[in-house]
Amino acid sequence: MPNVAVIGSQWGDEGKGKIVDWLSSRADVVVRFQGGHNAGHTLVIDGVTYKLHLLPSGIVRKSKISIIGNGVVIDPWALVEEIKTIQAQGVDINPDKLKIAENAPLILPVHGALDEAMEVARGNKPIGTTKRGIGPAYEDKIARRAIRICDLEYPDVMREKLERMMLHHNALLKGLGAEQVSADEIFAQLMEVRDEILPYIAVTWKVLHDAHIDGQKILFEGAQGMMLDVDHGTYPYVTSSNMASGQAACGSGMGPDQIGYVLGITKAYTTRVGSGPFPTEQDNDIGQFLGERGHEFGTTTGRKRRCGWFDAVAVRQAIKLGGIHGIALTKLDVLDGMEEIKVCVGYELDGEKIDYLPASQVKQAAVTPIYETIEGWQETSRGARSWGDLPAAAVKYVKHIEELIGAPVTLLSTSPERDDTILMQDPFVGK
Ligand code: GDP
Ligand code: IMO
Ligand code: MG
Question: In CATH, which superfamily holds the domain spanning 266-429?
């Protein structure tokens, strides 16, 4: 039985939370391996909505272990608040169930201040970040300045690291004309929060290896999506981590051969929050229709998501770069009632046809999509729980997408509700 990694194949918000929650009934452990509380994963179970940012989407199930892996950047205050919010919704969260990697780096208030100041400095070309301090926290990790979860046990180490870190950041903040941040203040805040985090600290790589040897099934939960990957996405309009499936290994402390099946979560159309190239964007009535029907507002920032047609070129590329074996196609129901549906099957660049998205930001901004028009359907697919319940034209659309992207549709989602899901091939059984 292979383990399964779930990754986004577009620009995030593909419905990863819903699919991870659904799949977690088949798993024993769910582990987040990158990103931070820039993520917003929505679960709808019997009409009750749970919005998760740092907590793995297996947390709502009683007997599953949830792990926040070393590849995640953790804002301890945001985590404590999220734990309380989800507990208030009746979910049991305790150290037997939730474990945090001792080597995960922290997001501190200074990272939020830097994120904000850098966005201002970008003038009329901001990235449109979530302003959660994600980028600056990953910068500190790579610069070997980060305070990590395990440092919370040692106040002296924390203070010394903080002072060194603030020397660096305050010089930058001063240069940017932003307010300085005091190391003493952050230290005091850390001392207040640490008792709420310490009980959850664990040697998570060992927990994962022991579970694996014991024959338990592990579900790796990605955040964001391949087009936001810091190497392979629409750089610099990306987030500061890797989404490609190799990161599931690095960001949790397992080897790549311990991830058996990689499931790419893919929306039946495309959305993006924040700035950056989006070849199939429909800044018109169609985009408006998709946004309203799909309730396309950010789970984390509440920002309106940009909407457009399905981009088979970008998804095909994401499948190859991300090591995706099959996809879960979500939000098919949002397309119900459309006369015709367009799908991007290639790009035109300087009068030439190309079949991939180039890396240059100049070229990414210049490509224009080549569309195929597909017949829509007037019947409803919403809430369908079997292949036979789908309108014939919807089935045709799914089959055509499979051909264009070169990967099978393994799961299909037809509403936000957990059980409105059609299983074609169990990812835990394998390729
Ligand atoms: P994530 O970040 O990938 O977990 O996705 P988000 O939770 O940010 O956004 C996906 C949104 O679509 C959420 O509001 C989900 O409840 C909703 N959703 C997921 N699957 C479906 C589906 O098949 N149909 C519809 N209509 N909504 C869905
Ligand atoms: P989930 O896991 C969609 C986007 C931001 C911005 C860029 C950089 O819910 O799919 P950051 O704050 O990470 O430095 O912002 O990345 N972004 C997301 N967009 N879904 C997400 O997560 C995102 N996380 C970050 O909007 O464009
Ligand atoms: Mg989201």
Answer: Adenylosuccinate Synthetase, subunit A, domain 3 (3.90.170.10)
Q: Please give the distance of CA 130 from its chain centroid, rounded to a whole number.
A: 13
Q: Looking at ligand 2, which residue's alpha carbon is closest to its atom 27? A: 274
Residue of minimum CA distance from atom 6 in ligand 1: 13
Rounded distance, CA 138 to CA 111, Å?
Answer: 9
Domain ranges of the chain: 4-101+201-261, 109-197, 266-429
At 100-117, the pLDDT tens digits run 999 999 999 999 999 999
CA of 7 to the centre of ligand 2 (A): 14
The torsion angle over the Cα atoms of residues 279, 282, 283 and 289, rounded to 10 degrees, is -150
Helix/strand/coil (H/E/C) assignment for every residue in 375-391: ECCCCCCCCCCCHHHCC
The answer to whether the peptide bond before residue 236 is cis (omega within 30 degrees of 0) is: yes
Domain 4-101+201-261: give its CATH code.
3.40.440.10
- Closest approach atom of ligand 1 to CA 17: 4
- 0.70 exceeded by the pTM? yes
Residue nearest to atom 23 of ligand 2 (CA): 224
pLDDT digits (tens, 9 = 90+) for 231-275: 999 999 999 999 999 999 999 999 999 999 999 999 999 999 999
Which atom of ligand 2 has the smallest separation from the CA of 38?
A: 24
Q: What is the pLDDT of residues 44-90, one digit of tens each?
A: 999 999 999 999 999 999 999 999 999 999 999 999 999 999 999 99
Give the per-residue pLDDT at 298: 85
12 Cα–ligand 3 center, Å: 6
- The pLDDT tens digits of the residues spanning 277-330 come to 999 999 999 999 999 999 999 878 888 999 999 999 999 999 999 999 999 999
Report d(CA 381, CA 386) in Å as an integer. Answer: 10
Q: Express each pLDDT in 154-174 by its tens digit.
A: 999 999 999 999 999 999 999
Rg (CA), the chain: 21
Contact residues of ligand 1, CB 6 A cut-off: 8, 12-18, 40-42, 44, 295, 299, 330-331, 333-334, 413-416
The topology (CATH level 3) of 109-197 is: Adenylosuccinate Synthetase, subunit A; domain 2 (1.10.300)
Average pLDDT, the chain: 97
Catalytic residue of the set 21, 28, 37, 41: 41
Ligand 2 within 6 A of CB of 239: yes
Write the CB contacts of 190 (distance below 8 Å, at least 6 apart in sequence): 76, 108, 147, 152, 158, 162
